[in-house]
Amino acid sequence: MKVVNINERVLKRNEQMAAEIRTLLKEKNVFLVNLRGSPGAGKTTILEKVIAELKGRKRIAVIEGDLYTTRDAERLEKYGVQVVQVNTGGICHLEADMVKQALSKINLEIIDLLVIENVGNLVCTADYDLGEEIGIIVLSVSEGSDKIMKYPLIFQSSEIMLINKLDMLKNTDFSTVEIERDLNRINREMVVFNLSCKTGEGIFEFSRCLEERIDEFQATAD
Amino acid sequence: MKVVNINERVLKRNEQMAAEIRTLLKEKNVFLVNLRGSPGAGKTTILEKVIAELKGRKRIAVIEGDLYTTRDAERLEKYGVQVVQVNTGGICHLEADMVKQALSKINLEIIDLLVIENVGNLVCTADYDLGEEIGIIVLSVSEGSDKIMKYPLIFQSSEIMLINKLDMLKNTDFSTVEIERDLNRINREMVVFNLSCKTGEGIFEFSRCLEERIDEFQATAD
Fold it and tell me: By CA distance, what is B172's nearest residue in A?
């Protein structure tokens, strides 16, 4: 019982911090995305592709969440964007106060889009609001099409779903019918993109969608 | 600070409970395996194959960990083994007291092997000892070969690693050289099996290894 109370308190504190982040980023006109998915779903590779696609169109920074390493951050730095690594030291998700600390290391005046790449985890990353405008969930076809009902919270708390590694589809028993049926049950508003970072399928469409969302967000500023 | 202390207390209580489970299962001569991996790594499918392979040789029961659903348990029940579903209600890992409750629903007198299929998660499932004799980690090639250094604890706390979905290898940039190098750094004793549930590769070898471990365990009983 005690643990549950503490957990509630932790989540409440997190919510307050997330609200502060939301206010700050609205003021700075920075659109925040919380990118989530299983380990190996392809989050970093998608980011590489989107950063390349939006080059010269939107100014991007990334907060990289990871347990211990800086590998993904190193991969993204090559694309000339601001990258801040947050090492959780074994915690399975990012929390708003970690993001707030990272924000102090980013020049918010010169960016339009800030992407948080969360720790690879479909469970607890769904519980912690990081102040984002939208949540994006990446599901690779190799993970199987039963994941929506098994991890419903993360699919409920996302606005965009990226079905990744489409090039592998024929080697799996992934069922798009099952995905459609389950989204109908728990999140009818979900916007879905089919992606393959190998063939490039869907990268343009997803990037344009992101760009439009940033434009809308920035148009409502002040 | 308070949260950390509570967490330590939770882990300490978990350890005591795990020790009780270990004692009980030693007494009952039941070999306990803690099977872990990302969502969609292929844990349930591997279990289906191993149960079929060990049919008539070892008597098996399964504890299925999942957030909310009973899907995996339903899949396994078809193989005629005892299956107990544990729904964590949103918690990202199993804990020893959940396993203890499940044990009361299993007839331990008539089994040799009890497999716990943990929640799909590479992080917190590494923290909670469930009283197992061995930890097994499943990594599918589609997840990428950078996972050992990104989630070191779970690879350190496992004795057997199953590299799964080998049939997809040619469609990925998975590097067995990277895996070997990283295992050399953090767990030189790891026993590795290459598996494909599609082609059947490695299922026989892994099942035999498991059988030998059960025989050794049971031979040292009393």
Answer: A168
**Has residue B4 got a pLDDT over 60?**
no
A8 touches chain B (CB under 8 A): no
Would an 8 Å CB–CB cutoff place B70 in contact with chain A? no
CB contact (8 A) between residue B39 and residue A150:
yes
- Residue B6 and residue A2: Cβ atoms within 8 Å? yes
**In chain B, whose CA is at the least distance from the CA of A68?**
B150
- pLDDT average, residue stretch A83-111: 94
Q: How many CB atoms lie within 10 A of CB B183?
A: 16
Nearest to B206 by CA among B163, B168, B165: B163
Residues 6+ apart with CB under 8 A from B158: B36, B134, B135, B136, B137, B187, B190
Q: In the CATH scheme, what architecture does the domain B2-219 have?
A: 3-Layer(aba) Sandwich (3.40)
Alpha helices in chain B (DSSP H): 2-28, 43-53, 71-77, 96-103, 147-150, 152-156, 176-186, 203-219
Interface test with B, best of A150, A163, A168, A186 (most B CBs within 10 A): A150
SS3 call for B37: strand
pLDDT in tens, A41-66: 999 999 999 999 999 999 999 999 99
For chain A, report the end-to-end CA distance as a whole number of angstroms: 44
Token output for B137: 């980690």
Under 8 Å between Cβ of A32 and A114: yes
Please name the residues in contact with A191: beta carbons below 8 A apart, sequence gap of 6 or more.
A159, A160, A161, A209
**pTM, rounded to two decimals:** 0.93
| ipTM score for this prediction | 0.89
